[in-house]
Amino acid sequence: MLLLPTSAAQDLADYVARHMSELTLPDLVDVLVALADLRYHPGGAWVARHTACCNACVGELSAYQIRLMGNATAAMRELSEADWLPRKGEVV
Questions:
Q1: How far apart are CA 60 and CA 37, in angstroms?
Q2: How many CB atoms lie under 10 A from the CB of residue 20?
Q3: How distant is the alpha carbon of residue 23 from its chain centre?
Q4: Could you tell me if residue 89 is inside a domain?
Q5: Cα separations in angstroms, 38 against 7, 9, 33
Q6: Mean pLDDT over residues 71-92, rounded?
Q7: Is residue 85 assigned to a domain?
Q8: Which domain range does residue 13 map to?
Q9: Could you tell me if residue 44 is inside a domain?
Q10: Which pLDDT tens digit goes with each residue over 54-75?
Q11: Which of 7, 16, 46, 83 has the fewest CB atoms nearer than 10 Å to its CB?
């Protein structure tokens, strides 16, 4: 298993937050799945913004992409705060 420094997951989430409206729908799906696979929750505001971007083009999502995002979202919901990788500036 590849272990990334916490800052790498946070950097990815920060980059996506800055460029979310510019990303393609497949990119939005991939980043959500990647963060869930890393067991990293980028925070409620990030997830809400991501959801809004995806909802804007929901008609373009394939059934497979919807399943991927549903599974990633469920995995993030299952994480307790203790399981999250700390975000930048958090003290654990």
A1: 24
A2: 17
A3: 13
A4: no
A5: 12, 8, 9
A6: 68
A7: no
A8: 6-78
A9: yes
A10: 988 888 999 999 999 999 998 8
A11: 83
Distances (CA, A) of 74 to 4, 8, 90, 92: 22, 22, 23, 24
Q: Is 54 contained in some domain?
A: yes
* Mean pLDDT, rounded, for 26-53: 91
Q: How many domains in the chain? A: 1
Q: In the chain, pLDDT over 90 holds for what percent of residues?
A: 45
- In the prediction, which pLDDT does 1 show? 47
7: three-class secondary structure by DSSP: helix
Distances (CA, A) of 12 to 5, 8, 49, 62, 71: 11, 6, 15, 24, 20
DSSP assignment string, 16-56: HHHHGGGS-HHHHHHHHHHHHHTT----HHHHHHHHHHHHT
Q: Rounded distance, CA 78 to CA 64, Å?
A: 21
**In b/e form, how buried is each residue of 40-72, taking b as 16+ CB within 10 angstroms?**
bbbeeebbebbeebbeeeeeebeeebeebbeeb
